[in-house]
Amino acid sequence: MQTKLVRFPTSVVYRAMGHERYYHWIRRSKLYKTRQLTLLPDGSKLVYRPYTSDIHIMDAIYGDREYFDFSELYEEGATILDLGAHIGIYALKCRRIVGPTGKIICIEPEPENFSILTQNIRLNRYRNIIPVDVALADFTGRSYLWRDPDTGTLGHTLKRKMNYSPIPISVTTLDNLLTGLKLPRVDLIKMDVEGSELLVLKGAQKTLSRRNLRMIISAEHETPSIDEVRKFVESVGMEARVIRKTVYAKKQDHRSSVAR
Question: Which domains does the chain possess?
Answer without folding.
Answer: 65-251 (3.40.50.150)
